[in-house]
Design a protein that fits this description.
The chain contains 17 helices and 26 strands. By secondary structure, the chain is of the alpha/beta class. Among the domains are: about 180 residues, ANL, N-terminal domain (Rossmann fold, 3-Layer(aba) Sandwich); about 110 residues, ANL, C-terminal domain (GMP Synthetase, Chain A, domain 3), CATH 3.30.300.30. A hairpin with a 4-residue loop joins strand 20 and strand 21.
Amino acid sequence: MLPGLMQDRPLSIIDILRFAASAHATQEIISKNVDEPMWRSNYAASFKRSAQAAHMLQSLGLKTGDRISTLAWNNHRHFELFFAAPGIGLVLHTANPRLPDDHLVYTINHAGSRVLLLDRNMIEIYNRIADRLETVEKVITLTDTARTEGLYDGYEALIAPFPEAFDWPMLDENAGAFLCYTSGTTGDPKGVLYSHRSVVLHGFAAALDGALGFSAFDVVMPCQSLYHATAWGLPFAGCMAGVKFVFPCDKFDGASLQELIAAEGVTFSGGVPTIWTMYLDYIERTGQNPGSLKRVIIGGSAVPREMAVDFDRRGVSVQQIWGMTETSPLGVVATSTPALAERGREAELDHIWTRQGRMMFGMEMKIVDDDGNPLPHDGEASGALLVRGPWVLERYYRSDESALDADGWFDTGDISTIDELGFMRITDRKKDVIKSGGEWISSIDLENIAAGCPGVRIAAVVGIFHPKWEERPIMLIECHAGSEVSDEIVRSYLEQHVPKWWMPDRIFFEDVPMTATGKIDKKSIRVRHKDALWKKEDVSQ
């Protein structure tokens, strides 16, 4: 081997903010906060505050490799910790406050976190679980007060005495940086430990034009939570491009988001479908428009076509994405190509709206049959989706077993197709696909179609036991407020779009349960309605 003659400088997360503070020093960072005035600052100031936070964390006796946890929303202090903690060699565990208490306790204990930093309105959660936390030695509230409720030291008071410069260490790029947990819909949550290398490479790829396509002219409002797989990598891709950030804290309702969009000129945002359902409902009711907003990325669940159409007629382009905690999380992003654009705008939009996205550099993917044989990328063949790449998990935290096959492929648990243009389409999760009388029914397709029925806010479909057909679909419908939707109306709509044997055996009109990451909680639905088709009179003839 002939060695290259280039500098061997490790990839480091703190260098992302260091760059932004130098190249885009005055670019704004705007943040809402819990019970505080709006924060207005910039990259240069955030880099200095991250240095103060690093000094503060070091003063607590924390050492390289130690874990700390946050229970925090999308705000500037949480953003600062995204750089301060890994910058000194700590691992930041972004705990998910929407998890059930048992799962939340499990993740903090499993992480072995010594310090917990939390927003003011998380104190109630902490008080519920405090006696069960085994390793937490100190609690800090992310507030502008010296102490909160007379018990917990405040972040601002703690960082204030420290200098605004820090001699950041040069770390091994393979050192752990972020610890993110799966939502634990089956069993205990699993820890995924991101490295400096994986985060930086993921940020590079996410910022590319074929992915999120950021520039310094973008105003980015992350509505995907910072605690959910590092907000899909937006803090890092955004810093690399020098975007203006607008953090909404915990206010994701339509009115709050519209206020920020109008006041700060937001051009780009992202989040799960439920957030955008609420947003579109709000601006429709109030007669407003998205104004400066030009692009929205939506992940977590497939985008209902009606949502994409609604945004498009308002001048906002919708991009689906697919990924998972185990992929840091971006795997594909739905952006067009010249070959797709040649088919005309209608075909182009249809392709983008019905596929999760196309391959991005750094992520390999393939689909295989039940025997592990590769399937063609023709858009028709459907199989298990396998991925590999530099920001894909190798094994779970505190596990000795590899999560990969012999060739380094990770089984995502999704069933998908890949077409000739490289676009991947999820047809179902392995555990969610419905096998009825030997034939397959896609719960995702059925949900998306039902969501187009007027008055339907969310549709959820699961397969449950059927004494004749093995499994049959049932559907939950959550309606928009004030809408009158009946079983007959939904069935009449579905009959125009799906084969007769896809029709749900039962339709329930009730709130659709969601997981801690904003996805439909199908496990809960199955448990709730497990006997719905057991009675003899429910058996289809």
